[in-house]
Write a structure and sequence with these properties.
Layout lengths: L1 E3 L2 E3 L12 E2 H10 L7 H9 E2 L4 E2 L48 E6 L11 H4 L7 E4 L15 E3 L4 E2 L1
Antiparallel strand pairs: 1-2, 3-9, 4-5, 6-7, 7-8
């Protein structure tokens, strides 16, 4: 049985959903077991922004159109849970990667550090976040459309995320 925001579910009922509630270490171990690895932040962003037709960077995996209920599972959809894989075909990238925006934050192997040249007037606040965190990308079902873009980055304090 699996417990989530919607209550208890049989594991078989969750087989077609993105994996959620796993730590960075669990995600990394699974990828290694499967003969793969998690992407770096730069690799994730390239996959989410590269237009194969023009070889240029785009704002979202699907292009320049703003997010809507057909492109990703974001806050305004009101689902408050992950959606089945393939539920947002209009949101896939040119390589067919599904649901890179919305549903669950996606782990990368990159450390959450400031970008080169980043300068803040609030060092006592920012410095504590740039230690021991991994970068998350893609947003979740709780991320508002107005905040999301393929370059949006986040981090997790506990190194686990839903």
């Amino acid at each position: 049985m699996i417990r989530d925001f919607g209550g208890l579910h049989r594991a078989a009922d969750k087989a077609n959903e993105p994996v959620s509630h796993v730590s960075f270490l669990e995600a990394s171990a699974y990828a290694k077991w499967a003969g793969k690895r998690l992407p770096t932040e730069a690799e994730w962003e390239k996959a989410a922004t590269l237009s194969l037709s023009s070889d240029a960077k785009q704002t979202f995996p699907w292009g320049e159109s703003e997010p809507d209920e057909t492109r990703g599972n974001l806050f305004e959809n009101g689902l408050w849970a992950v959606a089945p894989i393939g539920a947002f075909p209009h949101g896939q990238n040119a390589n067919g990667c599904q649901q890179m925006i919305g549903d669950v934050w996606e782990w990368t192997t990159s450390d959450y550090t400031p970008y080169p040249g980043f300068k803040s007037d609030f060092d006592e606040y920012n410095d504590k976040w740039f230690v021991g965190q991994k970068v998350l990308r893609g947003g979740s079902f709780a991320t508002p459309r107005s905040h999301i873009r393929a370059t949006y980055r986040n981090f997790s304090i506990r190194m686990s995320v839903g």
